[in-house]
Amino acid sequence: MPFVNIRIVKEVIAADPAGKKAAIAAQVTAAITGATGLTSNDVWVVFEEVNARDWFVGETDVETRRSKG
């Protein structure tokens, strides 16, 4: 049973978290079922939301990187 853990910056989906998570989960599930022949009930997708200020690329957090353009 595939288990997909998606970590995403919370602010990316802030406008419509439920809708965006559902769309992402549907597309990820479709990719896995298409490649494996499993059913959608066999694919588990979990989201972990991380604040932009808590996600770093190198030494700089994403919030700062985005504010600089």
UniProtKB/TrEMBL annotation:
Gene3D superfamilies: Macrophage Migration Inhibitory Factor. It holds the Pfam family Tautomerase. One of its GO terms (molecular function) is isomerase activity. Transmembrane segments: none annotated. Residues 2-63 form the 4-oxalocrotonate tautomerase-like domain. Keywords: Isomerase. InterPro entries: 4-OT-like_dom, Tautomerase/MIF_sf. The keyword Isomerase applies. The keyword Metal-binding does not apply. This is 4-oxalocrotonate tautomerase. It comes from Mesorhizobium tianshanense.
